[in-house]
Amino acid sequence: MSPRSERSPLLADRPRTSEDSTRRAEEEDAALHGVPVPLSPRRSAREVILFTWALLATAGVIVLAVVLQHRNSTSDTTPSPPPPPIAPGDPSAGGPYLSSKRPKRNLIFMVSDGMGPASLSLTRSFRQFTASLPADDVLTLDRHFWGTSRTRSTNSLVTDSAAGATAFSCGHKSYNGAISMLPGHKPCGTVLEAAKRKGFATGLVVTTDVTDATPACFAAHVDWRMQMDEIALQEVGVGPLGRSVDLILGGGRCHFLGNGTRGSCRADDVDVVRVAREKFGWGFKGDRAGFDELRMGKNVSLPMLGLFADADVPFEIDRRNMADVYPSLSEMAATALTALEKATRDSDKGFFLMIEGSRIDHAGHFNDPAAQVREVLEYDKTFKTVLDFLEKSDTEGVLVATSDHETGGLATAWQAPNELPVYNWHPSVLAKANASAEYCAFLLHQHIAAAPVESERSLIDWINAELVVARLGITDALEAELSALATNPAAANPIFSRMVSTRARIGWSTHGHSAVDVNIYSSGGKAAEKIRGNVENTDVGRFLSEYLDVDVDEITRELEDKFQGREVVELKSEGVAEVSGHPVEWLRDARI
Ligand SMILES: *[C@@H]1O[C@H](CO)[C@@H](O)[C@H](O)[C@H]1NC(C)=O
Ligand SMILES: *[C@@H]1O[C@H](CO)[C@@H](O)[C@H](O)[C@H]1NC(C)=O
Ligand SMILES: *[C@@H]1O[C@H](CO)[C@@H](O)[C@H](O)[C@H]1NC(C)=O
Ligand SMILES: [Zn+2]
């Protein structure tokens, strides 16, 4: 074990940001060019394929995050108003239920990362089409519409997931990239930490890396979201507050393995799984077989760390064909609900669980509507799973679900250049696709790596037959599209996405986020009245700690003490430029 693992990561000798980013960029570069990644002989052929794919899959999203970050840190943004003050004596802050001793209660908070209102319309119509349902059939989410949330951050009208999740976890606005840090790099206590302190059980369930911005904001405090090596350590308990999380289920295993281990994406050699086990008593499950041992939550002893993918769990459209390798969001959520309920059976406190449909956002970044509708359907199913749980549970509880922001500027209409508008869009196109653009791009890279001397003609024919027709269900590909794929495979993901989108007449205005208000959904009840209507994302955050009657300010004061004298990580624009240089070009190339 390295000396570093013995120390608080907050006080570690050097910030790791740029090192991490450079290393990541090299891996992404290799993946984007189809260079095989060296792998452990212990892995099965299938895992090798999935692992390489996972690297490739993550590349685009991380790249986009870095690009956004770069813009935010280098351009002058309009000075923004300070975050709304939270007056301790504000009568609107407490509500009648603050005064008396609360009965036991559970709070489930769901985040649909990157899901805007258009995603609901898209998915509702898709479902009606594929399941032959009437025009008035709606999603479970639609029946629990509660209000809308305004999402801007302190330094931009367009938030990123980190500032978005900080608004939920701390109840304060912050700068893009902040992991439960406020402007001025001051830490803020989170609802999960305050809940744990008060005796609640706590859990995080996601489909991306568990070190990604949304889950990180509930259980870590770092200056920038890219500091994932630090985040992993803090999440298991190596941090200012010790261990706050009882159950973590998701992807991102690579951040928990030391750099000497195959499949690691850490810059250092800290074996976080070992630290978690030995110092904090975590149980660990690292694959689908391990997940099955949890027996849907009936065989879980806390704390339990379950990491079921090297990075992202595949998009649902692909995962359902690999269900023997990866659990779904709804399976992980059901497991967490059962485990946390069981763990709090004899407690007078309940639990706080955050569940994120993480990859709705990724489908938005990639502009892939076929992948997105299946992500939203799985999220809707998970929402129903939670509602059913609350219905059956003897303990009082509330479900609140919202998004941190919209991604992609999705529109359920698209006017082709030089054509008149068409008043329609076509779910049938999305229904025919049975793989994501991301997976098709992975298959293309794999094919090129296996047959590097193929002629362009033969490559084009293979792409058309095996990917475009067989996987995307597109039978009228243009020669220009196929040749763009053959000559610029690095841009395959956005090219495939565009082929699907234009045929379905689905529009996108960006590969990044947008500022549109997002929806809030809830199981309802009197307590949730406070976030009815059009509210600020911080109102949602404050609701969470008020509902549990926990004090995040007390945690903030403790963190401020413990963070005194620490090194603050500032983004160096050169360091970021180094990372974003290639990807920016890649994005430009993506527009055929
Ligand atoms: C692995 O981490 C150690 C420090 O923990 C570092 O000295 C070494 O250079 C790293 N190796 C690689 C290949 O990154
Ligand atoms: C229950 O969990 C334990 C510890 O993780 C494991 O050894 C055991 O095999 C599990 N039982 C079942 C029936 O899966
Ligand atoms: C995808 O669809 C094609 C035809 O549209 C079919 O040949 C192929 O087997 C399907 N693959 C899966 C995994 O369903
Ligand atoms: Zn987000």
How would you characterize the overall build of this protein?
With 592 residues, the chain is α/β, with parallel strands linked by helices. The chain has 2 domains: 98-409 and 513-590, Alkaline Phosphatase, subunit A, CATH 3.40.720.10; 427-504. The protein contains 22 helices and 14 strands. The strands form 3 sheets. A 10-stranded mixed beta sheet has the order 7-8-6-5-9-1-10-13-2-14, with helices on both faces. Helix 10 (288-293) links the parallel strand 7 and strand 8. The radius of gyration is 23 Å and the shape is globular. The chain starts with 16 loop residues before the first helix and ends with a helix. Bound molecules: 2-acetamido-2-deoxy-beta-D-glucopyranose (3 copies) and zinc ion. One 2-acetamido-2-deoxy-beta-D-glucopyranose (NAG) is lined by residues 321, 434, 470-471, 473. One 2-acetamido-2-deoxy-beta-D-glucopyranose (NAG) binds at residues 2, 259, 268-269.
